[in-house]
Write a structure and sequence with these properties.
Elements: E1 14-18, H1 24-31, H2 66-78, E2 85-89, E3 92-101, H3 108-112, E4 126-134, H4 143-157, E5 162-165, H5 184-189, E6 193-197, E7 202-207
Parallel strand pairs: 4-5
Antiparallel strand pairs: 1-2, 2-3, 3-4, 5-7, 6-7
Length: about 210
């Protein structure tokens, strides 16, 4: 009789860590377009390194090379200016969330094509969620939710009181290019409410009240 296959191992638990200078190389390995998993199935975006929302609208994004974006992001991380969250399975980075206080995102509104939502707290107490990037093999395994939960807990502990998100109106599309802002359903399940919308985006907000928000 054929030998039965061994039982499948439980997937490695997801650990979420706040980006810091000591994690710079982990971030770069995840995004390095020759070998990293971030855009393994979407190579036309492989030069981005999640630098897009830091670049002024007056500059031509199409002229930025992978090497330039890598250098810029490495420098931002080294000086503690770039914020975000990495998802790990063991020692492997399997996901990234670009989520930062609004005062560190002066170019994001123009790049999103929306006016930054009116704030009822100081800018340093408000944050925005921009990009989820999940390794292809780890999609639909709870990585995005773990990143979102980790970011909200970190923000609440740091005194952030308002978090905005901008999911695309993707319709029935399942292409990752149409969901890198995170799906609206993910934010709704996490307690976000709709503030408004554009032709392409829904603007949502979650209010945080403390470390256990």
């Amino acid at each position: 009789m054929p030998t039965a296959p061994p039982p499948a191992r439980d997937p490695a638990p997801i650990r979420v860590e706040r980006l810091a200078p000591a994690r710079r190389d982990d971030f770069l390995r995840f995004f390095d377009h020759e070998h990293g998993p971030a855009f393994a199935d979407n190579p036309q975006w492989s030069r981005c390194y999640c630098h897009y929302y830091q670049v002024p609208q007056v500059l031509d994004w199409s002229g930025f090379t992978a090497a330039q974006n890598r250098t810029a992001m490495a420098a931002r991380i080294e000086v503690g200016e770039q914020e975000g969250f990495l998802a790990y399975a063991g020692d492997e980075v399997v996901g990234w969330l670009n989520a930062q206080p609004w005062h560190k995102l002066p170019q994001a509104g123009a790049r999103l094509g929306v006016a930054p939502p009116a704030l009822d707290v100081p800018a340093f107490q408000a944050a925005a969620i921009l990009c989820f990037v999940i390794a292809p093999a780890w999609r639909r395994r709870g990585v995005a939710r773990a990143l979102l939960d980790g970011a909200l807990a970190s923000f609440a502990a740091r005194g952030i009181r308002s978090v905005d998100a901008f999911p695309f109106k993707a319709g029935d599309s399942t292409a990752p290019q149409h969901h890198y802002h995170g799906p609206a359903a993910l934010f709704t399940a996490a307690g976000f409410e709709v503030l408004g919308e554009t032709d392409e985006l829904t603007v949502m907000r979650r209010r945080l009240t403390g470390p256990r928000a």
